[in-house]
Design goal:
Radius of gyration: 19 Å
Oligomer: single chain
Structural class: alpha/beta
Number of helices: 14
Number of domains: 2
Shape: globular
Order of helices and strands: HHEHEHEHHEHEHEHEHEHEHHEH
CATH superfamily of the largest domain: Bordetella uptake gene, domain 1
Distance between the termini: 19 Å
Number of strands: 10
Largest sheet: 10 strands, mixed
Length: 334
Amino acid sequence: MNIPLTHVSKHWQSGRRGVIGLAMLALCGVTAAQDLTIGRPIKLIVGYPPGGSNDIVARIVAPRLAEALGTPVVVENKAGANGVIGADAVAKAAPDGHTLLAASASPLVISPHLQTSRFPFDTRKDLLAINTLGRMPEVIAVNPSLQISTLNQLLALAKTKPVTLASSGNGGLPHLTIELLKQASRGNIVHVPYKGAGPAVTDVIAGHTQGIVMDLPPLYPMLQDGRLRPLAVTSDRRVEFLPKLPTAEEELPGFQVSNWIGVFAPAKTPRAIVDKINAAMIAAMARQDVREQLQKAAVTPATLASPEAFQAFVNEEFARWGRVVKSANVQADN
């Protein structure tokens, strides 16, 4: 079971060298006929309730985007269907740059393969990729009352009795990670989907569900103060935020899963507006205060060279996760 980590070496660039100059050039190159309406707010749609990775990152970056663009940027939570409702709203919005999407892998490159007969939009045709904001691994954690401390112990326990693992919803990356753990353990792991990261974390802390698989950011405070016990991180190497936490691959060879978050616009948004938003994102991500806030939230800041680079990455992710879903035989209602 080898799930390669998202194509970091080929695509990601986390440095800031030259990005401010690039941002200024793009910000100056927008014609009045294809410009944003200054003073009219930009809605940055997040397809989940407050408290999840997408929401955390969007709220850190939005004020700096507003400064760079000279117009308000308001984060709006439009939750439902594991991020699909929010993404669909942006796909169907007017292509004028005033409705954007902050989203990650789950609703854009995984859910379409799980809901093929009824999926409401085409990620590759109905949305324009602008740029990324960061990347983060999944974390496997449990309520401390469960007397285990390693991933191998969790998999062994699942062979003796049912073990419940929460996720932020059906059809997302945490859900798919749980399905892959089921295959690895060949035990009785029960997926418990919630409507977002916040409710899932609350129930695991309360002991209603035994464990959780989630992006690192919403779990990070609870891992630090002991309300949840981390077992493994799913990146290809240990993360700086939790350097003593082993990777899943150390105990389960070949097991690697990683997530990312980026900003998208409706298809047919004028290129000049896309360039202006991209420039504002690059300028925001070059700020030391933004990078420090993201790192404090356990997100690794990362941008790509251009909207074309991000679009190519999204297309590759779409195909790659399609293969994983098919090979794992995952269903949306598992």
